[in-house]
Amino acid sequence: MIRFFDIFFSVIGLIILSPLFLFLALWIKIDSKGPVFYKQLRVGKDGKDFYLYKFRTMVVDADKKGFITVGERDPRVTRAGYYLRKYKLDELPQLMNVLRGEMSFVGPRPEVRKYVNLYNEEQRKVLSVKPGITDYASIQYIDENEVLATSDNPEKAYIEVILPEKIKFNMKYIENQSVKEYFKIIFLTIRKMSISLFD
Fold it and tell me: What is the pTM of this model?
């Protein structure tokens, strides 16, 4: 049933948001050199790699200088990219990942292999379900980049503090998967984003 809702909402979303996609694509191209979309290899269900799609928010080859982004302090983020990240618009292309069946609307955010390799046996349970666009961890850490910006060592803070905490939130959904929980998380995400927009 959840797969049905994933397909339905992703198709409707791609159709309705197509004018916004076009506007954002033009903005990105005008703002900086490089492709409109950015794809990155992430780890999905059962540890299988897939390409996650986003609107490009950083200069080309930015990930060669590290995976962690630290908000306004990060010089790799483009001018357009700052606003795309701030309002989570860069995540919209993941509707294509959902439609393709690589992701769900709700589930643990997919990590890069570098960080997945650090998981212990218990933490690897997050790979038992499809990764998602949002879940309890995404809601709790909606301002993650700004939090990391206050750290002297953002990557260490992410690995030692944020990542373990996010996995604990991931497990809350994994252990209580249902259509009711699916819609609850979507509703809480929309509410949290609405509050952040007008905060």
Answer: 0.90
